[in-house]
Amino acid sequence: MAVLFSDDFVRAIAPLRIVARQVAAGGRHAEHRSRDLGSGMEFRDFRSYVPGDDIRRVDWNLYRRSGRLFLRLFEETEDLPVYILLDVSDSMFFEIPPRADAARQMAAVLAAITLNQLDRTAIYPFADDLLRPLGPISGKQGVHRVLAHLEQLGPSGPTNFERSVRRLQAMRLRQGLAVVISDYFDPRGIGAVAAALRSLRHRLLLVQVARASDAAPSLDGELRLIDCESGAGVDVAVTGAGLERYRRAYREYCDELLRFAARRRAAHLVLDADRPVLAQLGELFVGGVFVTGG
Fold this sequence. Notes:
The protein is an alpha/beta fold and 294 residues long. The protein has helices spanning 7-13, 60-66, 99-116, 143-151, 161-169, 190-198, 212-215, 240-264, 277-284; strands at 17-20, 32-38, 42-48, 70-78, 82-87, 120-126, 134-138, 177-182, 203-210, 221-226, 233-238, 267-272, 289-292.
């Protein structure tokens, strides 16, 4: 694990936190605020007593003043289940260094944060289909299992967001935070990617693994381009006009992903595959905290 997950790397991510403004009820006690009001620790409101309520929650001081029975309501703290969808398609392992390295490190960061704050996490690698997952796991000791699992992942075929997401949806997981770490390159196009992600009922965090050459490739002359997943080739004569058309298409691809994120109120992070992940964490986690949407 020396290459991807050094001791310095693990120590650097320990203080980081993910905070959810609200989480769905039904989990275990942890650090996040639930939509439900129950018998937690932080007082929020009163409501009238109805038969069947827990008599221990009656505010007897208020009863003596008003002659009516009211319950004290407290804000529940619940765990936030975090589901990490990690792209391990062939395109993620193609370059040097492969973007899969940055992607796996980011998955490790998010999983370690989740486990350190007593939440549960699961990792769902995907390519042409959803692969064997890890978890769900909980507890700080689970970090070592996560790192070992991520270390052994390798290229697993072409990309198919629609099939992979459909398989995840069929699991009917408790509502939580779905983190999708990918280059978002799918042969069906970014519209198909957005359509697949639209079906996820979880809160979304989109981590786009990119590099500067995606937007501005250094190509010139007559070339044979090979699709790194299908192996199909095409002969092209690269000209200034052709490069401009490519740059325009790439901008449209990025804009479509951003529009989808805005419509879904999803968080969107760009992870630079050419920069150390640790160096980027200060930009992604302001003050050591990343806050998800409501």
